Amino acid sequence: MRLLLTSAAVLSLGLSAAHAQPAAFAEDPALSAGLADIVAEAGLAGMFDVGEDGEQPVSLVVVDLAGPAPVWGGASPDAFLYPASVYKMYVAAAVLSQVLDGRYDLDTPRVVAAHNAVDTAREVLSDPRPLLAAGDTVTVGYLLDLMITRSDNSAANEMIDLATRPTVDSLMHRYGWQGSEVTRKFLPRSVEDPGYADVPSTMTSGRHAAEFLALAATDRLVHPWVSQRLMALLGGQLDRGKLAAGLPRTAFFAHKTGWWSFWTHDVGVVRDGDVAYVVALLTPLPEAEARPRMAEVGARVHALMTARADG
Is the Cβ–Cβ distance between 154 and 120 less than 8 Å? Predict the structure, then answer.
């Protein structure tokens, strides 16, 4: 069924596109100090060798959503790291914005291009959905779900082509997140699109990822419909082995993970009773080394935010 927009929704979308301001949250120094302690206690302080990219720190940022106004704290919040699959959430927001704008629908069919079908194994083995193959015809909504919940690279390549990289970048710039532009697809440079074979890798910071999610969690990313659809996708995340492993069973975690080579990340929105916060953890560590430390960070951050909520 085609998504129909009321004139009010179209007007709202136009105004949000024209007048959106950079995300502006006040820093809480006490929260930053607490997060710095957590990074140190988890053995994640200092710099880590990431080969040709030199040395990089862990970036941990939390936005407390439980108070009268969101406030943030962080350790190395503005360090830029390769985000791996985390940046698929930026692509999803751009696609959803175009759906809202009426350019296509969630049930619009799309044929998978041969060079985009790169996955040879499912990222989450428990997920029974087959790998995408060249020539498969699937809907935009199906590709969005695969890209977020299973972190499917073939689906991400299709969604990047559909949204276009300049459109994703424009959305990010609208909120002041320069430096988090999407430069690459998830495929070898030898088969990249013209003009993208030699571009730098995509980067993002913990602060940009956290602010992006804070706006989505409060219905302020582009439009409430876009924010809510994105949060629904993130709520279906199948990877539960990073920050999620340290959270209590009562916590709902809508998140996006990413891992490749030296990089392992988890970013999302946690809600647990009166506790509500965004957490973004970007680490320059291989997945096997990062997972137990990330679970520890998840548990410690949740304890800190629960104490804050309890006053």
Answer: no
